[in-house]
Predict the structure.
Amino acid sequence: MINANSLRAGMVIKFNNELHSIFAFTHRTPGNLRAFVQVKMRNLRTSSMFEHRFASEDKVDRISLDEQEVEFLYKEADTYHFMNTETYEQYEFGEDVLGEAAQYLTANLKLNIQFYEEKPVGVELPAAVSLKVMETEPGLKGATVSNVGKPATMDSGLVVQVPAFIGEGEVIRVSTTTGEYLERA
């Protein structure tokens, strides 16, 4: 158990008998009122994000997770297949474990799977991934400096707003935290 003041982004806590990952936190001391910690957290089971306010003296149950580095192999129907990079043991996970992370998976991508009591509870993606543009409007010649975006569908099914000069077949880097276009790969 730790004080709510000790919460930091990336920590995993047990709240209302469910595991939650801390996404953002703010410590506030409003005037002559008691201090509190405003926390934005994601439920690891449902992937829903919400905010909660803890009093600074509240005790929170911090959870330590086991992490294993895995490599994404392939998708078959609604099942995603991974291989542990050290033991070569293979795992199968559904979208209930992966959540939104499934949209960023490409063959041979290395990532960390988090386990709690030997059950998978979450995925830790790299900061950015390279995805191939499968469908978008034709690129405009000379539109190298423009803030006008257009939707593009990636090979994983993710739709990203890209600059006008990006065309089909190009490989781009996409942020896994915001889902935004970063650069050409």
